[in-house]
Amino acid sequence: MPMMVAEVTRIMGGERTLGRRIRTSEDLRHAVEDGLPLEVLSRVVRHVAGSDVGAQALKYRIVPKATLHRRKGRLSLEESERLERMARVTAFAEQVWEDEDLAREFLNGAQPQLGGQTPLDLLRTELGARQVEELLMKLEYGLPA
Hints:
Layout: H1 5-11, H2 14-18, H3 25-34, H4 38-49, H5 52-62, H6 65-70, H7 77-97, H8 100-108, H9 119-122, H10 126-141
Helix pairs in contact: 1-7, 4-5, 4-7, 7-8, 7-10
């Protein structure tokens, strides 16, 4: 799967929210390593959830509630990685489904090909994200899932 830096950056709120220009995978990696701005968390979860109500619960999958209330400025490396992973898989799902609402439905719905889990549940780990990306790749190219 090619890295869709422009789409990931768009989901994260763009240059204004990120506070820097992101053009390449290397730029995105540096932004993640430096810790993404806290505002990026709100942008991504609102985009993925589609509503403020769903975004609240999704936010705590990235940063635990108690930690979030203490957090100022930037996310940790681990939190930034989880958030980038969510934005990256969301961008890929939107490419496959060619519709934000259909992609959101896929991400939030239990998928038999993923053992009945939702893709968002699997995004907690990089290996889980790879499973979701593999399924999306099969859907994109019409391969048996």
